[in-house]
Amino acid sequence: MNQPLTRRQMLRTACAATAFVGIAPRLTRLRAAEPAQYELPKLPYAFDALEPAIDAATMQLHYEKHHQAYIDNLNKALADQPDLRSLPIAELVRGLVPGKSPAALVNHGGGHLNHTMFWESLRAPRADNRPEKSLSELIARAFKTFDAFREQFTKTALGRFGSGWAWLALDERQKLIIRDTLNQESPLMFAQQPLLGLDVWEHAYYLKYQNRRADYIAAWWSVVNWETVAARFDKATSK
Q1: Residue 12 — very low, low, confident or very high, per pLDDT cuts 50/70/90?
Q2: I need a surface site. Which of 33, 71, 72, 157 has the fewest CB within 10 A?
Q3: What is the pLDDT of residue 185?
Q4: Angle between the 133-143 and 226-237 helix axes, to the nearest 10 degrees?
Q5: How buried is residue 184: exposed, middle or buried, by Cβ count under 10 Å (0-12/13-18/19+)?
Q6: Where are the beta strands (DSSP E) in the chain?
Q7: Of the given ranges (34-38, 147-151, 156-160, 173-177), which has the lowest mean pLDDT?
């Protein structure tokens, strides 16, 4: 007897079709109490809260224009698909496969989720900004030292040619890894759980840093919200 499709397989099949025909009844339990359309999440701080690492003008443009554009285009792509539009954004993105799912969903669904996580991962600058002991020890165990982790993550972010993201994530075995993704792809699309993402698209830093991506990355470390990262790790590993 054929085995029933998993939830992930069903999502991928639905999203890959040229014309969607809806989601099987078992997916209705995934529907969240969300608005009829995806909306821009409230920024948890003022535009100038991250200065001098990230300037207010960049924050406002990045949030109000770039993130909003991903949401608008995602809603447009799902205008006739209320079953998909009712999914929490992470569930929608988890079911997408780059190169197979519609590009509009990969680009704009990933863009919405990645930016939402990005805002949540930032806070006012702190000197010698590091995670609390438990997470710091886990990172050091995975990458030899915390400083070695920072060096490897920075190298990955600098090495992302063109537009994309650098990530700290958990792989399918719940092992900490560093990786990058192209454009607005998310580790969720590769069965990995994102914990911390750095946006290295030029729109994230060009007003202040121009072509100096290295300076932007160096400043970004001071505004990482490690409490949020730790909470994501705890949630992902408690399942």
Answers
A1: low
A2: 33
A3: 98
A4: 70
A5: buried
A6: 164-170, 176-182, 193-199
A7: 34-38
170-179 confidence digits (pLDDT tens): 999 999 999 9
Query: The sheet that has 193-199: what strands, in order across it?
Result: 176-182, 164-170, 193-199
* Structural domains of the chain, count: 1
Residue 71 lies in a domain: no
Whether the Cβ atoms of residue 236 and residue 174 lie closer than 8 Å to each other = yes
Residues 56 and 48: beta-carbon distance below 8 Å: yes
Q: Which domain holds residue 217?
A: 133-237
Global model pTM greater than 0.90: no
Q: Collapsing DSSP states into helix, strand and coil, what is residue 105?
A: helix
The CATH number assigned to the domain holding 232 equals 3.55.40.20
Does 13 fall in a domain? no
Contact by Cβ (8 Å): 19, 188: no
Is 151 among the domain residues? Answer: yes
